[in-house]
Amino acid sequence: MTLAALDLSDNQIGNIGAQHIGDALQHNTTLKSLNLGFNKIGDIGAQHIGDGLQHNTTLTELHLDTNQIGSIGAQHIGDGLQRNTALTTLVLSCNQIGHIGAQHIANALQHNTALIELRIDTNQIGSTGAQHIGDGLQRNTALTTLYLRFNKIGDIGAQYIGDALQHNTTLTALYLDTNQIGSTGAQHIGDSLQLNTALTTLYLRFNEIGEIGAQHIGDGLQHNTTLTTLSLSGNQIGGIGAQHIGDGLQHNTTLTTLSLSGNQIGDIGAQHIGRALQHNTTLTTLTLYCNYIGDIGAQHIGDGLQHNTTLAELDLGGNRIGAIGAQHIGDALQHNT
């Protein structure tokens, strides 16, 4: 028996301990998964791990989250990635790589052909960092999953990512939650959806896109033919925004999972979603949790269910549906088969 997975997370190995692990990586030929999260290895420790990556040929999964790694440490990890041909998953979340560190990681993406999942959430990369990552995506042909949550990329950063999506043909899952992209950023992402033919999962939760941003995303849905999962939770889209999303659903033929939780769509928004359900033939999971939907809104959703033959899961929790609303849902259940 040879060790294939090692979890050293939440210890106190520091940069000296990272040196020992990095040295071991240069010679080890069995370890496939290594978790060094929460160890304060810093930039010096990241250098040792990066050196190890340059010579290691078997490790496929590496977790370095919450390690006080800055831009210099990111440079060492990036250098390792440029020469490494085995690593497929890298987690760098909750460090402090900033936009300069993002540039080093992006440079690595332009040369690396093995990495398929990258997590750099909560790294203060900002719009400039997003620009670098976007540049990397335009030239990368391997990465399929990218986490950029909590990075304050803003609408400008969203533009760079959107531009990259128009050229990238391999990324299938993108997580941009809590990035302050706003309605303008949503426009850039929506525009990219009209041209992108690879992305299947998109998370835009808590980005303050509002009803105007929802319109752009809805327009994107009308032309997109690959996206299957979309989360717009906590975006203040309101009833009008729900109308735009509903319009998109009426023309979309690929989306199967949609979350609109915490968007204050109310009864009016529920009416538009209900109408969309009457025409949409692909959506299987719909989350409308905590949306101020009352009895009238429940009636509209119920009407949609009576004519819908594909929806399998519906979340209406945390709303304002009373006995009358429950009656409408109950009536729908009697006809929905």
Average residue-wise pLDDT: 97
The low-pLDDT segments are none
Tell me the β content: 5-15%
User: Helix tally?
Assistant: 12
**CATH class label of the largest domain:** Alpha Beta
Helix-strand sequence: EHEHEHEHEHEHEHEHEHEHEHEH
Examine the secondary-structure arrangement and name the CATH architecture of the largest domain: Alpha-Beta Horseshoe
Description of the molecule:
There is one protein chain. The chain is α/β, with parallel strands linked by helices and 337 residues long. It has 2 domains: 1-153, Leucine-rich repeat, LRR (right-handed beta-alpha superhelix); 181-337, Leucine-rich repeat, LRR (right-handed beta-alpha superhelix), CATH 3.80.10. 48% of the residues lie in helices and 11% in strands. It contains 12 helices and 12 strands. Strands 1-2-3-4-5-6-7-8-9-10-11-12 form a 12-stranded parallel beta sheet, with no helix packed on it. α2 links the parallel β2 (33-35) and β3 (61-63). α2 (42-55) runs parallel beside α3, α6 runs parallel beside α7 (182-195) and α8 (210-223) runs parallel beside α9. The chain is elongated. The mean pLDDT is 97.
